[in-house]
Structure prediction request, 229 residues.
Amino acid sequence: AQSVAQPEDQVNVAEGNPLTVKCTYSVSGNPYLFWYVQYPNRGLQFLLKYITGDNLVKGSYGFEAEFNKSQTSFHLKKPSALVSDSALYFCAVRDIGNTGFQKLVFGTGTRLLVSP
Amino acid sequence: DTGVSQDPRHKITKRGQNVTFRCDPISEHNRLYWYRQTLGQGPEFLTYFQNEAQLEKSRLLSDRFSAERPKGSFSTLEIQRTEQGDSAMYLCASSLRDSGEQFFGPGTRLTVL
Prediction:
């Protein structure tokens, strides 16, 4: 089964500094990888995805992610963090169900705290 | 607002009662998913519809859970004889195609007393 791991429960960064939120994956076949963000009492918002192509994927709100096949990683990055980036971030991988459909398998999430 | 909507946003119920949640997907999306999220965890897949057909159910979905999507539009998720362990955020998502991203609603937070 496909899976992702987010090794950090929380990441702290000062505003203006670069941020990285880590994700590693375990898949059979080619991975379809996603990042979502969740603000308090709200649903998940899509940030970016990797299916194929360039290893550096650009997404919403200035976020980007780097796909690294040799390290089986898909880390989320942003050059300059904002206080408003503070939220819960989920990495996810596509898994093919029994009937051939796609479902998402999520990591446990990483809380990002950006201090002023 | 043309995003995914869910109703109600919050539901408090007593153990043993039945509850029903509704999800309205993005109108042109034929794929609809239900997930459950408990505190400190990522969302876990529950069930999937393509149009009106329920094509997949997770083992997490016990016999007390039933989902429908009549006419391939909105969907309902019913939990019968609720238990305290059912307390969670229930998320609905929709997508246009399998390789595309899923768009999530705001969720329904269920608390079973």
Remarks:
- Residues 38 and 86 of chain B are 9 Å apart (CA to CA).
- The radius of gyration of chain B is 13 Å.
- Chain B touches chain A through 28 residues (CB under 8 Å).
